[in-house]
Specification:
Elements (H helix, E strand, L loop, with lengths): L2 H5 L3 E5 L3 E8 L10 H5 L3 E2 L2 H13 L4 E6 L20 H11 L5 E4 L9 H9 L6 E7 L3 H7 L5 H14 L4 E8 L6 H14 L3 E6 L16 H26 L3 E7 L3 E3 L5 E3 L7 E10 L2 E6 L2
Parallel strand pairs: 2-4, 4-5, 6-7, 7-8, 11-13
Antiparallel strand pairs: 1-2, 2-3, 9-10, 9-12, 10-11, 12-13
Helix pairs in contact: 3-4, 4-5, 8-9
Length: 305
């Protein structure tokens, strides 16, 4: 598929008329053993920077206060564009810099799922210096065990996730991290699974998306020795419980602070770190709240004086 084919689908959706999802990349050049995406969507294709900037400008003119850059393998952005290697090559960090410079009307810019091993120096510099780039980073981790990561054919190790989170925290002390995990991958032992559980604390992860492994026909992982389905489900439930506890700790650390939130429909606002705050108000409006507590997976706040 051509870049133009990707560009025609740049806007994925609008979330409550507050947040727009802007797809800037599609497909994937990698071949993780559990994934069928490359078979359905092909190799990585990036939307040209000029088209992304024009679309972002159009979205801000329509009143969207927040733009989320999305992609199947977002951190590979630019590798297929002209001059896609060497100094000055297009990259996700470069795109972030250009967007925030050329579209000053963007109030908040978010990134969807990242592959930490692909994060370029320019992206780290943007994280450090661009206040309008929101300090919430969701990582495609999948496992906390190095042997399982190899069997998944991932390109990072457990230590890479920990190091990336530590580096970003040094640059943005207010950063919060989420992660995708697969529990019960073929050949995963109890000790291997425990490495995923302990990674939550070791990397300081708060927002977890956990999935029990499910084989996809035609993938290498489907031909590996499988765990019992109930084992995978039970491990996923345990990892979710660990994530719930980590999120509760994160929320507790925010009580007593003041946070700017962007209001959405349904009486919810989001902090810069994407924490949900129960607060009634008109969607699209920014308010500063004093966080007074946490209840039912949300922060509770009142208008700051």
């Amino acid at each position: 598929m051509s870049v133009a084919g990707t560009a025609s689908q740049m806007v994925d959706s609008h979330d409550g008329h507050t947040r727009a999802f802007l797809q800037v990349q599609n497909g994937c050049d990698h071949r993780c053993t559990f994934c069928i995406i490359p078979f359905g969507r092909g190799n990585s294709r990036s939307v040209g920077m000029g088209e992304v900037i024009a679309e972002a400008r159009r979205l801000t003119e329509k009143g969207f206060a927040e733009i989320v850059l999305t992609g199947v393998d977002l951190t590979s952005y630019g590798s297929d564009l002209p001059y896609g290697s060497g100094p000055g090559a297009p990259s996700l960090g470069g795109l972030v810099r250009k967007l925030l410079k050329l579209v000053p009307e963007i109030k908040r810019l978010r990134l969807s799922s990242l592959d930490c091993i692909e994060a370029d120096d320019m992206l780290l510099a943007a994280i450090a210096e661009e206040e309008r780039l929101m300090p919430h980073f969701h990582l495609s981790v999948q496992s906390g065990d190095d042997l399982i990561l190899k069997r998944m054919k991932r390109r990072h190790a457990r230590a890479d996730t920990i190091a990336f989170c530590a580096s970003v925290r040094r640059l943005r002390p207010d950063a919060a991290f989420g992660a995708d995990f697969i529990a019960g991958f073929p050949t995963e032992t109890e000790a291997m699974f425990e490495n995923s559980v302990t990674l939550v604390d070791d990397a300081g992860l708060s927002f977890l998306h956990v999935f029990p492994f499910s084989p996809r026909a035609g993938t290498p992982a489907a031909r590996m020795p499988q765990l019992e389905r109930q084992t995978a489900k039970a491990r996923a439930a345990r990892l979710r419980a660990k994530g719930d506890a980590a999120l509760a700790d994160h929320f507790a650390s925010l009580i007593g602070s003041q946070k700017e939130i962007l209001l959405e429909k349904g009486g919810i606002g989001r902090t810069r770190c994407f924490a949900p705050v129960r607060f009634e108000g008109a969607a699209g409006r920014f308010v500063t709240v004093a966080v007074t507590g946490a209840q039912n997976g949300q922060l509770v706040g009142r208008l700051a004086s």
